[in-house]
Amino acid sequence: MTDTLSTPDEARAAGGPAGEPPPVGPGFVAAYAAAHAGLWIAVLTPIVVTMAVRVQQLAGPDAAATQGLVLGTGAVLALVTNPVFGALSDRTTSRFGRRRPWVLAGALAGAAGLAVVAVAPGVGGLLAGWCLAQLGFNAMLAALTAVLADRVPARQRGTVSGAVGVTVPVALVCGTFLVQATAGSTAWMFLAPAALAVAGAVVFAAVLRERRPAPARPGGPRRPARRPWSGPWRHPDFTWAWVSRFLLFMGIALLATFQAFYLVDHLGRSIAEVPRLIFWSTLVTSAAVILAGLVAGRVSDLTGRRKIFVLVSALVYGAGLLVIAAAPSFGVFLAGAAITGLGQGVYLAVDLALVADVLPDRETGAARNMGVLNIATALPQSLAPAIAPVILAAAGGSYPVLFLVAGLLAMLGSAAIAPVRGVR
Fold it and tell me: In whole angstroms, what is the distance from residue 263 CA to residue 269 CA?
């Protein structure tokens, strides 16, 4: 195992140029991806599948409203606390580093929250457990995301970002498998994903080598404390990258939230068919995301280019949504889903690397600013259910029009990356 901390001088001696961390090896990349995968399995499995089972057990006829309350409260907590935990991680001076304590403590707190969800005797306990889970896993996410800027040199960020980008579809598939494997025990439906999150955190903490921040000059001026969300907006490159991500993820959220209604109302499929059709849609999209993400991240590093990948991928995603909007059959719908998966895979692989390249205050505020970026990912999940009914009402209930708007938003996200000047 490597030393816990190293100074910038030691990092340069290890092979990194001035101001750059040394290269990371396959073991680091695998452990980093495993930590993200464990985190997303623990977070997404309840959201997609198991929370509905637990709510049905506790709330009965009020299950739908209760699930909305529980998941909505958790989403708000995630939105607010991620940059706060990032700022706290940036200011941590533990001998174990700035990120490692938050990765481990966050995973343990999140797992404890899922354990409460698994055994809660009532809705109040369920809500409290899910809030604890969201707090813990967002603390873990804030620290994990910052490691890309802290520990990975610019020439490897596309590759590492690509490996991280594919963990979400992998988590969805693994979560579905875990639910089937633990179908006889409601408790294990939550405890098994929690255990994977902790395992991923422990493995990554064991291989993480953090650089010690440069010591403050004696008698030097202290940097004034800033609100976690106030700093990065003074940097246009970061702001445009945030806007681009927000617009693309709004398109993603509109598709993910309303594709079931589209299949029934526009394609005329029965409600009983919807789970099977969404399974195939998810499988096709996930395969495309994984394929495109792994290739695009590596090619981006080899060429040293980021903007063109982000710009084109958002356009491709928008084009896929336009295909879905005009789909006359489920086969064409699947073709559109594959196109969106290709665009999403490239975007997820390269956009995070682009943001890390232009990140302001990388040495002192990486986790805080990455937390602000995470708002661009999380906020559309909350806004889409509120905005879509307005669009549908104006369009006479037309889901193709809704997806047309989603496609245009994604294409605007592509245009928003053009003003970024800090990377090629």
Answer: 6
Q: Residue 110's domain is classified under what CATH number? A: 1.20.1250.20
Prediction pTM value: 0.79
Q: 240 and 199 share a domain? A: no
Buried b / exposed e over 82-97, threshold 16 CB at 10 Å, is bbbbbbbbbebeeeeb
In a domain, residue 270? The reply is yes
Tokens representing 381? 């999940």
Segments in 182-273 forming alpha helices (H)? 186-207, 236-265
- pLDDT tens figures, 230-246: 555 678 888 888 898 89
Question: Are 155 and 43 within one domain?
Answer: yes
Q: Are 150 and 21 in contact (CB under 8 A)?
A: yes
Structure-block tokens of residue 98: 């700035």
Q: What is the C-alpha separation between 207 and 107, in angstroms, rounded? A: 16
Please tell me the chain's helix, strand, coil percentages from 3-state DSSP, rounded to the nearest 5: 80, 0, 20
pLDDT in tens, 207-225: 998 766 555 444 444 444 4
How far apart are alpha carbons 346 and 342 in whole angstroms?
Answer: 6
